[in-house]
Every structure is written in C-alpha cells, then in structure tokens.
Write a structure and sequence with these properties.
Elements: E1 5-10, E2 16-21, E3 26-30, E4 36-40, E5 47-52, E6 59-64, E7 68-73, E8 78-84, E9 86-87, E10 91-92, E11 95-100, E12 106-111, E13 116-120, E14 135-136, E15 143-145, E16 151-153, E17 168-169, H1 178-181, E18 197-203, E19 209-216, H2 219-224, H3 228-253
Antiparallel strand pairs: 1-2, 2-3, 3-4, 5-6, 6-7, 7-8, 9-10, 11-12, 12-13, 14-17, 15-16, 18-19
Length: 267
Amino acid sequence: MKPKVTMIAWNQNDNYVVTAVNNHLLKVWNSHTGQLLHDLVGHADEVFVLETHPFDSRIMLSAGHDGNIFIWDITKGTKTKHYFNMIEGQGHGAVFDCKFSPDGQHFACTDSHGHLLIFGFGCSRPYEKIPDQMFFHTDYRPLIRDSNNYVLDEQTQQAPHLMPPPFLVDVDGNPHPTKYQRLVPGRENCADEHLIPQLGYVATSDGEVVEQVIGQQTLDQDEQGLEPSILDGMIRQLQLQQDQRTGADQESASGAPQNGEGTPRRG
C-alpha cells in the first residue's frame, strides 16, 4: 500500500509538524530541517483529526475512525492520555472532530453516533442541566429537488436556508421547554408564545404514526384551536386559484372591442 498523508498540523510555536498517514501512524517532523523525529503508534484506523494545544507547544491531540482519542507529548514522542469511545451495545463510535477551548483546559469531540463528548478539569454539573438528547426537528426531514435542481424541504417546499429557526426536540420528536428553545440561533430574543411549536402526527419510515413538531404557533392561535400552517396554505391556494381565474378572464377579454370608458367588455 502506498502511504498517503490524510492530515497535517503545526504545533503552537511552528517548530514541529505532525502528519497523519493512512497506515495509522502519526509522524512528528522538525519543521526547520525536515528531519523525522518520532513515529506515534496507537491508532488502528485512519486519523482525520489533529488539533494543537492553544498555548502549550508540546501538546497535540489526535482522533480517528477507530474511536481513539490521544493526547500526545510530541517533543518526547509519548502518549499522555488516551480515551476509547466505546458505546454500549453499538461498538465504538468514530470521532469526526475535536476542538480545544481557548484556555486549553477543555476539549470537545463529536462522533459518528451524534454524541458530543466534553473533556476537561472540574465537575460536569453545569452540563447536567442540558437534556441528554437534543436534535433540531428538521434534522431528518426528507428533501426534494425542484425543476431547477435546487434542494427544497419536502414538507414546506422551501429552501432549507430560508426556513425559520428550528425547534429543539428529543430523539422521539418531543419539543424541549422554552428555556432550551432560546439556545437556537435566531430565537434568543423571541417571546414565549413564539417558542411553542405546533405538533402534528407524522408517519415514520417504518409506517408508525408519531406526534412530532411540524411548525410554529402562537398562544392565541393555540387557544383558538387553529393550525396556521394548514389555514395559511388554504388561503394561498384560494388566492392562487382566484389569480388564475382573473388572469384567464383578462386574456379572453383582451381582444374584445372597448367601450367608451376604455374598459374591456366580456362576450
């Protein structure tokens, strides 16, 4: 197998360069002379994450599709800490991305199973306030393409980037309380009534009908029992039909003789 470099990263002071190779080795090089200093052995699959510590030039973090996360001392060529991302009943989760915090005391990783892993010093009590499951209600909605081959949300027929900010839900599609909805960019300053999602019944891919978020409603609309998305759609459809009828009438009358006031007469 011909070795290929998959990732490359300089350390904090640019004295060292670390490369990840598809034979699962990490190589540490002197950036001034090009001399190979260390081979870092530990990964069992390809590595696509190399992160340097924000101020400690000795420290480099690596993570890969084998579920391993290593913190290395690249000046000595040794591993300082190791974590294996084992998920109960599902094997290991490949690690797709990692980032250090600006103070270098914490780092966060995301894996192939949708988990956010947070490492660092101190207690985890602040993070326990956040629900275990947080998804956008639009995360798994089907997409379609229009006649111009642009992507649209199948349910609303809108381009995804033009849709309103999504709601936060759990894995079953149940919305979280309003205090969590304000965490979504674009909803920080919304009034409470704009943070209450509209629920409806949606068929899953297995044919099971479940109650899920389908849009947004206000308290007034909720009290009146109205479903704004359906009513708005009916109003738009009626208006469209009226416009089409008006346009057809104008086309049929455009060739008719005019009366004294200049208004077309219909035959």
